[in-house]
Design goal:
Elements lengths: L1 E4 L5 H12 L4 E4 L8 H11 L12 H6 L7 H10 L8 E4 L2 E4 L3 H8 L1
Parallel strand pairs: 1-2
Antiparallel strand pairs: 1-3, 3-4
Length: 114
């Protein structure tokens, strides 16, 4: 089953969800802003994305700039920052068959779900 970490206020996330809906595949929406992933869940998503924690952070968000930018943070501290402030998590994230991508590009999502 496809999972999408979704923010309904984000246009890229809404477009990605609309695309997934058109595939007629089963999917689950994870509203990560209100149902924040646990530390271990986010660590697992990072593993599926094959990314370092900082690569998943929206570094232009005000919260990041004011509280974390320029600080020496461990990977675990960066993950915790995303859990404490889920708006920092890049979106949408699409998970399928043990792999994941950041679904901002419809063409990449199409290839991923094929």
């Amino acid at each position: 089953m496809i999972q999408i970490y979704h923010n309904p206020r984000c246009g890229k996330s809404r477009n990605c969800l609309a695309f997934i809906e058109q595939t007629n595949q089963e999917y689950q929406i994870i509203p990560y802003l209100t149902e924040t992933p646990t530390f271990n869940e986010l660590k697992e998503v990072l593993k599926k994305l094959n990314l370092e924690p900082l690569e998943l952070v929206r570094i232009k968000e005000k919260i990041w700039i004011e509280n974390y930018k320029g600080k020496e943070l461990s990977n675990d501290q960066i993950i915790q920052a995303m859990i404490d402030n889920p708006i920092l998590i890049e979106r949408p994230i699409v998970v399928k068959d043990g792999k994941a991508i950041i679904g901002r590009d419809p063409d990449l999502v199409a290839a991923f779900l094929d």
